[in-house]
Amino acid sequence: MSGKHYDDLEVGQVIQHSLGRTITEMDNVLFSALTMNPQPLHIDEHYASQTQFGQRIVNGIFTLGLAVGLTVADLTQGTLVANLGYEGVKHPHPMFHGDTLYVETEVVDKRESKSRPGQGLVRFKHTGRNQHGVVVIEFERTALMLRRSS
Question: Which positions ≥6 away from 135 have C-beta within 8 Å?
Fold first, then answer.
């Protein structure tokens, strides 16, 4: 698997994820529909055009999910046991249709699991930027990871 094990990660380590993803109108509208979110900022162009944004904005929960997804190949593919929590989610700037999301991850903390031999907890800080380098999402995530050595 291409993911990193608990043992491969060091506090302070920064990973620049090379994979980016352009968000389309279909992504935003479909995600909003699937999650039964009728927020007009996401699905009503006329309404959104009259707001401070001047256009529809991408659903923030979609941006959060995409940011995590963009890290999987480099971090957790085949080595994740479970995501245990997300904290401090901030959206300092909106994403718009046609924007591309890129993510950087910092390992903030880690410790061996006391109750699960062969596993450890890692706290990641993820920062997502659009194609212009503007921060569009920041959050921390705690993951239970497999250890390479037990």
Answer: 92, 93, 127, 128, 129
Q: Which helix (H) or strand (E) holds 75?
A: helix 72-75
The whole-angstrom separation of Cα 74 and Cα 87 is: 21
Whether the CB-CB separation of 147 and 118 falls below 8 Å is answered with yes
Q: Is residue 40 a part of any domain in this protein?
A: no
With 0-12 CB in 10 A as exposed, 13-18 as middle and 19+ as buried, what is 1?
A: exposed
67 within a domain of the structure (yes/no): yes
Strand locations in 48-99, DSSP E? 80-90
Q: Which of 64, 75, 61, 57 is nearest to 138 (CA)?
A: 64
pLDDT per position as a tens digit, 59-75: 999 999 999 999 999 99
CATH code where residue 80 lies: 3.10.129.10
pTM: 0.94
